[in-house]
Protein 1
Amino acid sequence: TEPETTRPFDAEVGRLLDLVVHSLYSEREIFLRELVANAADAIDRRRFLALSDESLALPEDAAIRISIDKGARTITITDDGIGMTAEDLASHLGTIARSGTRAFAETLSQAKEADRPSLIGQFGVGFYSAFMVADEVEVISRRAGAEAAHRWVSDGRGGYRIRPATRETAGSDVILHVKSDADEYLEPVRLETILRKWADHISVPIQLERDGKFLAANEGTALWRKRKSDISEADYAEFYRHLGHMFDEPWATIHWTAEGALEFSALLFIPGHAPFAVTEDDRESHVRLHVRRMFITDDARLLPGWLRFVAGVVDTEDLPLNVSREMLQATPILARIRKALVNRVLTELKTRAKDEDAYRPFIEQFGAVLKEGIYDDNDHRADIASLARFRSTANDALTSLDAYVARMKPEQTDIYYLTGEDAERLKTSPQLEGLRAKGFEVLLLADQIDFFWPERLATYADKKLVHAGAARDIFSPAETSDALAVLAKSLQAALGDQVSEVRASSRLTDSPAALAAGGAQADLALQRLMRRAGR
Ligand code: ADP
Ligand code: MG
């Protein structure tokens, strides 16, 4: 038989454990949310894999079962999910695979002590939260399709041990040996209260043992299938938090049922706050796809990447329950659902954009991501551009392109913009001087994506978008004098091939000189950005 192995945690796990256990005391009850969520994920994963491999099929009574042994001071959370092999146990529970968890550890360690509990609101802390209430955690697991089972055990300090174990069926048991100061969690009523708070929407049955009997602890209602009139704001908000591990209020809730040629229900949320790193890491949408209530996958890219901050569920009658991965990629039904979803979200945003004050929080959180759509989305480019907001030289408020166009001077033909890395610094750029003297407004663009979309968009409301540095032909020819010509010549000689040309210009009013990008070259700030990226 295999010997027992003892291993230390990754350094990152050690740090995270320390922080979670010592700084989130007031939020301890979330351990149950995290462990039940993992159990539900494991069952969903097994159901999905079983679509292409019958031997992995879930038992008919698949559930999450929670029991308490007061005498032994243990809480056991059992699931019929996909289970873990010995290697899975080591890599999933001994290292931090998820970049989100790493980001959490970093943010938490940099946060002030007093701010830490509220930070938990923004992140899921995962499996390690078990150590907030347990001084020892055991996981007995058997991977579906495998014979062998293993037992992982740790006191949450230095490391963990793994050895062979027995388990009758596939799935996992997470056994918490409850700390002496966490007695409250050995009361079924306490656990029931926690479960009722946020687990009602988990579609997998959750059963809590009371007096020897397992009783349903969640309703498992598919909220999105209910009528809007039967759902309260609080129900929506609770479901939203459950969906995305979020703890704020949704900024927008969009719930509708499509009938006719295409039948589906959709419940989408625009979050109140950007989940950390929404612009980096993962650029795909993870809106969940259900078929007749059953969760299928959150990988179906139901929305384009520039709407990846939208969380939600789409449930359709029009696909078979045993839909395969290949079919998900090929079916025209999903393509049509995708189209309907984007249009519905755009309509919602257009409606909300009419009230600039109410719209601003959205732009602050997701404005930069939205602008990726101007670059990426051939079908909706102009619509997205009309929804974006920009800083400009006109005033301190954000402006839309429509408002810019309405303010254009009668003699102004183009929309001017200037890109850079810092909007404040752009305000003082010499490149603005000539335009400012003419009273022409300039958009100040300082997000990374701003280096890319203006050229793609090219025109808005039939006006050309022109980089301030390329707005040359509107200026009257510069006065020329012999002295200027001599100066230009000697500057040219001094700078050599660092510049292609030194030229007198009437565009500068205060500054003696400015750098400009020549005709077809990418603009200066972009050139700098690309150089830094090593291109
Ligand atoms: P996350 O759930 O966000 O990935 P966790 O720390 O909660 O992060 O869990 C880490 C990983 O451990 C999971 O991604 C999963 O692979 C594995 N895991 C945890 N609990 C279970 C379980 N009950 N069954 C199967 N795998 C699990
Ligand atoms: Mg988890």
Protein 2
Amino acid sequence: MYYDFYAGGAEDEHTLKKNVQEFQRIILQPRVLVDVSNIAMSTNILGYTISAPIMIAPTSMHKLAHPEGELATARAAAEFNTIMILSFSASSSVEEVAASCDAVRFFQLYAIVLTADRPRRGRKEADIKNKMNLPQLKNLEGLISIEVFSDKGSNTKPYTNEIFDSSFCWRDIAWLKSITNLPILIKGILTREDATKAMEVGAAGIIVSNHGGRQLDYTPATISVLEEVVQAVGRKVPVLLDGGIRRGTDVFKALALGAQAVLVGRPVIYGLAAKGEAGVRKVMHMLKDELELTMALAGCPTLKDISRSHGISSSSSDL
Ligand code: FNR
């Protein structure tokens, strides 16, 4: 049941599959005879230096994967020297995670990530079938009263209805800005129009995301709309991407199409489920090592060397 909760997507899971498949349609165009004896992967996101352009996406309920939950993930993020975005629906409180390590944390601490694509919960049929019950949300303990671990069917829908205000809209970003000085990143942008609106309301960054295919099914794969968003933003703020990053070559492709960094969702949870903190570290280091090798073999010793001319889309008949 928990595996399905993590792995699954909305309805036909079309977007879930596309997120991965569209990366596979991009073919790399390496340059040879470049000095690649040193590969530099460190980058800076909104003033915070991270060891590689690979961050941890916000995903809920890490304690369903491992008893140490978000605390183990945060320690791995600190060791890897990257940013972990802590989910609002975490199974550990912000305070517990903050106390556990020195990782840069983008959640009411250094920045706020506003998830914009979840006015209501997407229909995840595996959760309904499995009668998936979410445990109490740690950050909302005592504030909402949802029956946890009942046998009446999945509680994910009532949970969401009680927590999320589906009237929240662009106008309300001004309110959010009025109550915090923290930079606000908007997560869930998939179109040029929304990227432009995000710029107008003063977003400090944009995350191109379809929520890992868990919200509206039949939205495009994130990698296929990245360039459109990057062009609309015009380098004014960082553009990040998540969805379907499974290899260092995927990270490279996202950077080639204009992302400043990527976020990783499910692979982190799988690492956590397998081996706790060590498992998350392993996943992050695998991606980084693969990126390093890809940069070397593609003739890109620095992140700035990775350009649009290093990747082309192949038509499906080429595959
Ligand atoms: C998510 N995601 C998510 N996003 C968010 O903004 N807040 C959240 O609480 C969650 N929770 C969540 C739980 C689980 C189990 C998954 C798999 C995903 C979406 C997440 O941040 C990210 O957009 C995707 O996971 C990226 O896709 P990949 O890397 O999983 O393919």
